[in-house]
Specification:
Shape: globular
Structural class: mainly beta
Radius of gyration: 16 Å
Length: 161
């Protein structure tokens, strides 16, 4: 745990150095090329973060496309959005939680036996410096993405406190 804390502190110091003007915004999708399914996820998914590797924008470099996590570089109010997509299936919904510091905040959920599924959710959160936000799948969830970038995770700093 102490190694993880040291790494987080080091990353936070790097973010402060890079983000002197206070602008923070990111948007990313699953697919970097081609198409395919992510999941299904089974059992407990409390520690699995979805990785959105295709980065559209990452002003302030607070989003890490290798871990799927956003690390708040400054205290403020942030807005986060998740958009998810999958093909119809009786067993696999498009379902994921937006998680702050390990706590589930909102769920985006959609399921259909006959049609494609689009689901989304958004939330505005007060964040402290060093808080972490990521997206974690609900057990049984499966997602589909391709070059059209159906599945996205985005966030932005609205104002500092």
């Amino acid at each position: 745990m102490s190694l993880e804390l040291q790494q987080t502190k080091r990353m936070l110091e790097e973010l402060k150095t890079e983000n002197l003007d206070g602008k923070v915004a990111f948007s990313a999708s699953f697919s970097t090329s081609g198409g395919g399914y992510v999941g299904p996820f089974s059992g407990t998914t409390n520690q699995v973060s979805l990785i959105f590797r295709h980065v559209f924008v990452n002003v302030g470099n607070a989003y890490n496309p290798n871990t799927g996590s956003f690390l708040s570089p400054t205290r403020g109010v942030y807005e986060f959005k998740i958009y998810l997509y999958t093909h119809a299936h009786t067993s696999y919904p498009a379902a994921a939680f937006l998680v702050k510091n390990g706590e589930r905040i909102v769920l985006a959920y959609g399921k259909s036996d006959n049609y494609q599924v689009n689901t989304a959710n958004a939330v505005t959160l007060k964040m402290e410096e060093g808080d972490v936000v990521n997206v974690r799948p609900q057990s049984g969830a499966r997602f589909y993405d391709n070059e059209n970038h159906h599945c996205t995770f985005s966030g932005q700093l609205l104002f500092t406190l």
